[in-house]
Specification:
Layout lengths: L1 E10 L4 H17 L3 E2 L4 E10 L3 H11 L3 E3 L2 H6 L3 E6 L3 H13 L3 E4 L7 H14 L3 E3 L7 H11 L6 E9 L25 H16 L3 E9 L4 E3 L5 E3 L5 E8 L4 E7 L10 E7 L2 E5 L4 E5 L23 E2 L9 H15 L7 H20 L3 E2 L6
Length: 383
């Protein structure tokens, strides 16, 4: 057994997502299990290099997890030939420039989304990466979640027949920050800092719809700011200049129609923070992050609309739980494993910077659709 150390520069790891999901739940989890076996006698050993702007926070993280390497000097890390991969989980507004530098330095890149603040920048990153001959990937974690993996199993098994529609509900109440602390950083609500729920969530919806049901062909969206004033991390009030809710209709290849509501100003009355209902000629299913329930055509009840009498059926009880039929890893961990195998064993991988650019494109067109009050076509992009 040969152990190969893979040094990974992790920029933005002091943030909630970078720290919890990418460092602790992914790379440190791989170390805890002894590394990532490639199947040829080689085991990859991730060696994180923590990168960020706040030295005390980086030092504290390194000490907490017994890591040797941390720095605030991004350029020095990119110039280090021992660093194999650059990972970015910074705020959106800082990501594009950092990725450009990493590509120019010849590093393989793996990044959170959106990859850039606009489609032109996202496409340029994909072109630069292709020209440099590096491996590149974009986090598309939702399709690795247990609920959506079960949903895909139903799709692949022909359960739905002809799929007609998809209905998605995502969101929760993010406190304004005055009498209870907000669950999201304040920059999310400032458009000038790259905030907004369309920019944040439409890239997710693009790859979920694309991977499971087909490419998005058109979008019609209404983005709005329901809560116009919030309070930042220091308790100071500020004007929310970014959208905190978006209501979108997406036409997909093959005629499937998807409706997805995204909101940070909604109280949850569903089983999970995100749920997708898929209806087809032969059956329907509702999938969340972890669970999936289905109802086949043969088991579909025959309700009759009668507002004069109370409902006599408990409709939720008429659905069947889709079994796990296996063990599901953390979605972020699963994609990290695939990307590391792609880099070091040339395993297939298609969640690249071009895929990330499609997400940026959908967000950009969604905001434009809202501003212009009309449906817009989503052209197919390529390098």
């Amino acid at each position: 057994m040969t152990r190969k150390t893979v040094r990974i520069a992790m920029n933005g790891v002091t943030g909630r997502m970078g720290y919890r999901q990418h460092l602790v739940r992914s790379l440190l989890a791989l170390r805890d299990q002894g590394g990532l076996a490639l199947g040829d006698g080689t085991v990859l050993w991730p060696e994180p290099v923590l990168v960020g702007r706040r030295a005390p926070a980086l030092k504290a993280l390194a000490e907490r997890h017994g890591l040797e390497h941390w720095t605030t000097d991004v350029d020095a890390v990119l110039a280090d030939p021992a660093v194999d991969i650059y990972f970015d989980a910074q705020v959106t507004s800082a990501r594009e420039e950092a990725l450009r530098k990493a590509i120019a330095a010849g590093k393989h890149v793996y990044t959170e989304k959106p990859t850039a603040t606009g489609l032109d920048g996202a496409l340029e990153l994909a072109r630069l990466a292709a020209a440099a001959g590096i491996k590149h990937g974009v986090v598309q974690d939702k399709i690795f979640l247990p609920g959506l993996l079960k949903l895909k199993r139903l799709i692949d098994g022909g359960f739905f027949g002809r799929i007609l529609s998809v209905r998605g509900e995502f969101g929760y109440w993010v406190f304004e920050g005055d009498w209870q602390g907000a669950q999201r950083p304040s920059w999310n609500y400032r458009a000038e800092d790259g905030g907004g729920i369309v920019v944040d969530m439409f890239p997710h919806w693009e790859y979920v719809l694309h991977e499971l049901f087909g490419r998005v062909r058109s979008v019609q969206a209404l983005a709005t700011t329901h809560v116009p004033q919030r309070w930042d991390e220091n308790g100071k009030p500020y004007d929310a200049t970014a959208d905190d809710a978006a209501y979108g209709i997406f036409e997909l290849e093959g005629g499937v129609v998807a409706q997805i509501n995204s909101s940070w100003a909604v109280r949850v009355h569903r089983d999970e923070l995100v749920e997708f209902q898929v209806d087809g000629t032969e059956g329907s299913a509702v999938a969340g992050l972890r669970t999936c329930r289905a109802q086949h055509r043969s088991a579909t009840p025959k309700p009759v609309w009668n507002p004069d009498v109370p409902a006599t059926e408990v409709f939720r009880d008429q659905w069947q739980e889709v079994p796990d039929n296996g063990e599901f890893d953390n979605g972020f961990t699963a994609q990290w494993e695939l990307f590391l195998k792609h880099v070091h064993a040339d395993a297939p991988y298609h969640w690249d910077l071009l895929a990330g650019a499609r997400g940026v494109q959908l967000a950009e067109l969604g905001l434009r659709s809202s501003a212009e009050g009309r449906r817009l076509d989503v052209p197919e992009i390529q390098l």
